[in-house]
Design goal:
It is a single chain. It contains seven helices and no strands. By secondary structure, the protein is mostly helical. The chain is elongated, with a radius of gyration of 18 Å.
């Protein structure tokens, strides 16, 4: 016997989904794609996939992981096929930060290679644990830890170079 879902139930659920995950998915996609329009498209495509598949979830964490996985995969596909047209001005990034402290981190993350960028964003900005990131990205825990290590080293190097630059300017 197939379950009948009313249009009202779907509308209420999609409103909840958008309110719950919309901003987070946009930030993730924006950091990956470095383009506001493409990030909006990726989030929209994620919600469209949700509506067309109507997946069932075990719990809210499973639901959240599904949305992040679909969105990051969509971003990977967009990057792979060179759909990206223009890049976001780094100064505009602060408009999308949850709080002021994350602005500098998001700016630095946008400059990193894709693999490190995604794990650092999920871990430090969105607050996921290493094991959760491994599930979301379907990679091993060791791979997540290595990407975090390399990403942190690249960030340190970037900050050292910036610090050195300002010391030489003075």
């Amino acid at each position: 016997m197939q379950q009948v879902i009313s249009t009202t139930d779907i509308e209420i659920n999609i409103d909840r989904i958008i309110d719950t995950y919309g901003n987070m998915l946009f930030r993730i996609c924006l950091v990956i794609l470095c383009n506001e329009s493409d990030a909006e498209d990726a989030v929209q495509d994620t919600f469209i996939k949700y509506l067309s598949k109507v997946p069932t979830f075990n719990d809210s964490e499973h639901e959240k992981a599904w949305f992040i996985t679909v969105a990051t995969n969509r971003c990977k596909n967009m990057r792979r096929y060179n759909i990206i047209r223009r890049h976001l001005d780094i100064n505009d990034l602060q408009l999308y930060c949850k709080n002021e402290e994350n602005y500098g981190l998001l700016e630095a993350l946008m400059k990193l290679p894709h693999k490190q960028k995604v794990v650092l964003l999920l871990h430090y900005v969105e607050g996921y644990k290493v094991e959760e990131i491994a599930k979301i990205l379907t990679i091993t825990v060791a791979a997540v830890k290595k990407r975090l290590q390399r990403g942190r080293e690249l960030l340190r190097q970037s900050y050292r170079e910036e610090e050195q630059y300002w010391m030489n300017v003075k």
